[in-house]
Structures are given as structure tokens and as C-alpha cells.
Amino acid sequence: MKLIDDTLLNSLTQQAKENQRLRINHNLHLSLDENVQRLLNAMEPGTVLPIHRHRNTAETYIILRGKLDVHVYSDDKQLIETHRLDPLEGKFGIHMPAGSWHNVEVLESGTSIFEVKEGPYAPFDEDDIMEIS
């Protein structure tokens, strides 16, 4: 059993601040081979998440604290939507269908999300990262 509380989130936030990538994952699943990947993701402003997609799996974010924008892109590299997740505004999460191009922009220190996607874990292929010049 793992309690998700301020103590855990504060610890993850501190680790994210100390991490060169300005984010840290805390897996709740026991193995990368599990059919469901469940994790906490603590992120700081300035972290860089590439525009990416998960071809064969949907992905859901639930914001626990902080604020971030989820940017959605078309196949021809156009920004088509931005959704702000902010629990103080009553905007708690987003579900991204499989194949959706997206990234996030962290707007507040201490931002933490609960993330769920189908497993097993698979690293990105180069075709699943979108470069915009």
C-alpha cells in the first residue's frame, strides 16, 4: 500500500527540483511489463517534454496540484488545442486517445500529476517524436 499525500508529493517535488530534467516519475506499478502503467509525475517549470504520441495506447493525466497546459498538435505539426489543468479552476484532467500528438508546459512549481497508460512500457520510437523548427 502506498499513501499519496503531501509528504510524498513534497518529496517528489524536491527530487524534481534537483533533477537535471526538472521532473521525476514515481511508479506505482511494480514492473514495466504490467498491462497498466500508473505513476506520479512531479514536474517543475522549464522541464522539456517533447511533442510525442503513444501510437497504441491512450494516456490519462489527473492533476493533483499545481498548473500545466496540455498542448495538442495535428499530424502536420500545427498546434490545434491547449487545455489548462488547474484544480483551483475545476479542471482536473485530460484523456488523450492513442496516437494523439501532445506535450505539456508546466506553469507552477510543485506541479504533480497522476498518469495512467496501457502497458507494457515501450520507449518512444523516433517516429513518435515530433520536431517543430
Short description:
It is built from one helix and ten strands. The chain has one helix at 6-18; strands spanning 23-27, 36-43, 51-52, 59-65, 68-73, 79-85, 93-96, 101-106, 111-118, 129-130.
Question: Topology, please?
Answer:
Elements: H1 6-18, E1 23-27, E2 36-43, E3 51-52, E4 59-65, E5 68-73, E6 79-85, E7 93-96, E8 101-106, E9 111-118, E10 129-130
Antiparallel strand pairs: 1-2, 2-9, 3-10, 4-7, 4-9, 5-6, 5-8
Structure description:
By secondary structure, the protein is mainly β. The chain has one helix and ten strands. It has one helix at residues 6-18; strands at residues 23-27, 36-43, 51-52, 59-65, 68-73, 79-85, 93-96, 101-106, 111-118, 129-130. Strand 1 and strand 2 (36-43) form a beta hairpin. The N and C termini lie far apart (45 Å).
Mean pLDDT: 95
Major sheet characteristics = 5 strands, antiparallel
User: What class do helices, strands and sheet pairing give?
Assistant: mainly beta
- Assembly status: single chain
Order of helices and strands: HEEEEEEEEEE
Number of helical stretches of at least 4 residues: 1
Number of strands: 10
Strand order of the largest sheet: 1-2-9-4-7
Mind telling me the C-alpha Rg? 14 Å
Share of residues in helices: under 10%
General shape: globular
Terminal Cα span: 45 Å
Q: Show unreliable segments.
A: none
Strand content: 35-45%
Give keywords.
five-stranded antiparallel beta sheet, mainly beta, 133 residues, 1 helix, globular
